[in-house]
C-alpha cells in the first residue's frame, strides 16, 4: 500500500478538520486516536476522502504507514499530554522523523522539547495553527518553528492546506525551535487586544448611545466595508445580529459577560515583560478578561457606587466616525506592540523572525486576518528593521489622521464612566512613545534619593547622584 505523506495523532475537532483538509488537498494521511472508536468514526464519516486516509489502531501500524522521514502532527491538549504522547511514540520512530506539536503550546515547552531531541536523530517542530475549526478544515494560517531541513520535509503538505491570500500561501518557516509557537502566542495576544477594543467600542455604543445589538451590528457591518475590514469585525456583526432561539432576545444580550481564557494572552504579556517591551494594550486586554470574570464582585460594586450617567453625543454621525477612527488608531498601537515583542524575542533567541512574512501569513486564515495586515505587510516589506510600526510612513500618516478621534472617544468614555482600558492604553502608549521629554527624570531622582541608584544627566556631566543631603546619596 502507498505510504502516507504525513501522520496525525488526535482526532478531536481541530485534528479531525486538519486531517480532512490534508486529505482533500491530495495528500495521503495516516491517522491515530488513542480511542480506536474515534478513529473508526472519523474514517466512516470521511466519505469520498477515505481513499486518502489510512486509519490506524496501533501506534506501530500508524508509524509504519508513513513515508520516512516521518512528519507526525500531534494535535492534542497542550501541556503534559504532549510530552506523554511523544514518549509513547518515540520507540517506534527512526532517524530523521519529525514530531510536530500543532497545539497552542507555550513556546518555552517547545524549546525544551526541541532541545531534548537534539542528538537523538529525531526532531521537533512547534507549529502554530490559527483559524479555529473552519480554518483547520479549509485553510488555516500556519506558523512553523524547527530546523530548516524538517520544514523542507513538510513544506509541500502545509502549503497545500494553508489559507491563500490572493494566491499566496499563509504558511511560513519562521525560525528554529520555539519561533513558530512564539509567533502564534503573539498572534493570540494581538487577538485579545483586538477583541477587547471591539468590545469596548460595543460598550460605548450600547451603554453610551443606547443602541440595540442589531443596530450595533449594522454599524460594524458598515465598518467592515471600510478600513476596519477584518474577520473579527465581520463576526462581530454576525453575532450582534443573531437572535437567541430560546428567549427571542438578541443572543449577545443573554450571554454572561465573563470572558474565558486559555493562557496564550497571558503568555504574551509575560514574555513582553520578560523582553522589556511595553505591550500595554495587550496587558489591558488580558486584565479586562480577568476583571470580567469577577462578576459577583462587579455586581456588588455597582450597587455600592452606582453608575455615572453617560451623556449622548450631540452629533451622532460625527461620533460614529470618531469611533471608527479611534478603533483604527488603537489597533495600530496594539499591533505595533505585538510586533515589537516579536522583534525583541527574535534578538533574544536568535530567530531572525521575518516581520514582513509574519504579517503576510496573517493576512488570511487566522483569527486576526484583515485588510490592515496587508498594509502592515507593505510597511514591513519597505522597512523590515523599523523599530516600531507606528513610525513607518504609512502608519505614521494613519496615526496622525486618527489619534484625535481616539483622544475624543477615550475622553467621552472616561467622563461617562465607560471602561475602555485597551483603547486608553493604546492612546497613552502613543502619547508616551512620541514625547521626547518624559517624566522618568523624577523617577530617577526618587530612585537615587532612596537607594543611591544614580542617574545620567542631560548635559553629560559625569556626576550621577543628587544633592539630597542623605548620607547615602550625596553629590558624587
Ligand atoms: C486561533 C485562536 C485559537 C483559540 C484560542 C482562544 O488563532 O485560531 O486564537 O487558538 O481560539 O485558543 O484562546 P482563549 O480561549 O484564550 O480566548
TrEMBL record:
Binding-site list for substrate: 104, 130-132, 187-188, 192, 262, 289, 447, 453
InterPro entries reported in the protein's UniProt record: 6-PGluconate_DH-like_C_sf, 6PGD_dom2, 6PGDH_C, 6PGDH_Gnd/GntZ, 6PGDH_NADP-bd, 6PGdom_BS, NAD(P)-bd_dom_sf, Pgluconate_DH
Catalyzed reactions: 6-phospho-D-gluconate + NADP(+) = D-ribulose 5-phosphate + CO2 + NADPH
UniProt: NADP(+) binding residues: 10-15, 33-35, 76-78, 104
Domain 6-phosphogluconate dehydrogenase C-terminal positions: 180-469
Entry keyword Oxidoreductase: yes
Keyword annotations: Gluconate utilization, NADP, Oxidoreductase, Pentose shunt
The enzyme's E.C. designation: 1.1.1.44
Pathways involved: Carbohydrate degradation; pentose phosphate pathway; D-ribulose 5-phosphate from D-glucose 6-phosphate (oxidative stage): step 3/3
Stored Pfam families: 6PGD, NAD_binding_2
Molecular functions (GO terms): NADP binding; phosphogluconate dehydrogenase (decarboxylating) activity
Active site: 184 (proton acceptor), 191 (proton donor)
Top-level taxon of the source organism: Bacteria
Biological process (GO), any one: D-gluconate metabolic process
Entry function: Catalyzes the oxidative decarboxylation of 6-phosphogluconate to ribulose 5-phosphate and CO(2), with concomitant reduction of NADP to NADPH.
UniProt family annotation: Belongs to the 6-phosphogluconate dehydrogenase family.
Self-association and partners: Homodimer.
Protein name listed in UniProt: 6-phosphogluconate dehydrogenase, decarboxylating
The species this protein was found in: Neorhizobium alkalisoli
Amino acid at each position: 500500500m502507498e505510504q502516507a505523506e504525513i501522520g496525525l495523532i488526535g482526532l478531536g475537532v481541530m485534528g479531525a478538520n486538519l486531517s480532512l483538509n490534508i486529505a482533500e488537498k491530495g495528500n495521503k494521511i495516516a491517522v491515530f486516536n488513542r480511542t480506536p472508536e474515534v478513529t473508526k468514526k472519523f474514517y466512516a464519516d470521511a466519505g469520498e476522502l477515505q481513499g486518502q486516509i489510512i486509519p490506524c489502531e496501533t501506534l506501530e501500524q500508524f508509524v509504519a504507514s508513513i513515508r520516512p522521514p516521518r512528519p507526525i502532527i500531534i494535535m492534542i491538549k497542550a501541556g503534559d499530554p504532549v510530552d506523554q504522547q511523544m514518549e509513547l511514540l518515540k520507540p517506534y520512530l527512526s532517524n530523521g522523523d519529525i514530531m510536530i506539536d500543532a497545539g497552542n503550546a507555550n513556546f518555552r515547552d517547545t524549546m525544551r522539547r526541541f532541545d531534548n531531541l537534539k542528538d537523538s536523530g529525531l526532531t521537533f517542530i512547534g507549529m502554530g495553527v490559527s483559524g479555529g475549526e473552519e480554518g483547520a478544515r479549509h485553510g488555516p494560517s500556519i506558523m512553523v518553528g524547527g530546523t530548516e531541513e524538517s520544514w523542507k520535509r513538510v513544506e509541500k503538505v502545509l502549503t497545500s492546506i494553508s489559507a491563500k491570500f490572493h494566491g499566496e500561501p499563509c504558511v511560513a518557516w519562521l525560525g528554529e525551535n520555539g519561533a513558530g509557537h512564539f509567533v502564534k502566542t503573539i498572534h493570540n495576544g494581538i487577538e485579545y487586544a483586538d477583541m477587547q477594543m471591539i468590545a469596548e467600542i460595543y460598550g460605548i455604543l450600547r451603554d453610551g448611545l443606547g443602541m440595540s445589538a442589531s443596530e450595533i451590528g449594522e454599524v460594524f457591518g458598515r465598518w467592515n466595508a471600510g478600513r476596519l475590514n477584518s474577520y473579527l469585525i465581520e463576526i462581530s456583526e454576525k453575532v450582534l445580529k443573531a437572535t437567541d432561539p430560546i428567549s427571542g432576545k438578541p443572543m449577545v444580550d443573554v450571554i454572561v459577560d465573563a470572558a474565558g481564557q486559555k493562557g496564550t494572552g497571558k503568555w504574551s504579556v509575560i514574555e513582553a515583560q520578560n523582553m522589556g517591551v511595553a505591550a500595554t494594550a495587550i496587558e489591558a486586554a488580558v486584565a479586562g478578561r480577568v476583571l470580567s470574570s469577577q462578576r459577583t464582585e462587579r455586581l456588588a460594586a455597582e450597587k455600592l457606587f452606582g453608575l455615572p450617567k453617560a451623556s449622548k453625543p450631540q452629533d451622532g454621525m460625527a461620533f460614529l466616525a470618531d469611533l471608527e477612527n479611534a478603533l483604527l488608531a488603537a489597533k495600530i498601537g496594539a499591533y505595533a506592540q505585538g510586533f515589537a515583542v516579536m522583534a525583541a524575542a527574535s534578538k533574544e533567541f536568535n530567530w531572525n523572525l521575518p516581520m514582513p512574512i509574519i504579517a503576510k501569513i496573517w493576512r488570511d486564515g487566522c483569527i486576526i486576518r484583515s485588510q490592515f495586515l496587508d498594509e502592515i505587510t507593505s510597511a514591513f516589506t519597505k522597512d523590515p528593521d523599523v523599530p516600531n510600526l507606528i513610525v513607518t510612513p504609512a502608519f505614521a500618516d494613519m496615526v496622525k489622521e486618527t489619534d484625535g478621534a481616539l483622544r475624543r472617544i477615550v475622553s467621552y468614555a472616561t467622563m461617562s464612566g465607560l471602561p475602555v482600558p485597551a483603547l486608553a492604553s493604546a492612546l497613552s502608549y502613543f502619547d508616551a512613545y512620541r514625547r521626547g521629554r518624559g517624566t522618568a527624570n523624577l523617577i530617577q531622582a526618587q530612585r537615587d534619593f532612596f537607594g543611591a541608584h544614580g542617574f545620567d544627566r542631560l548635559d553629560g556631566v559625569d556626576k550621577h547622584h543628587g544633592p539630597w543631603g542623605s548620607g547615602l546619596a550625596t553629590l558624587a
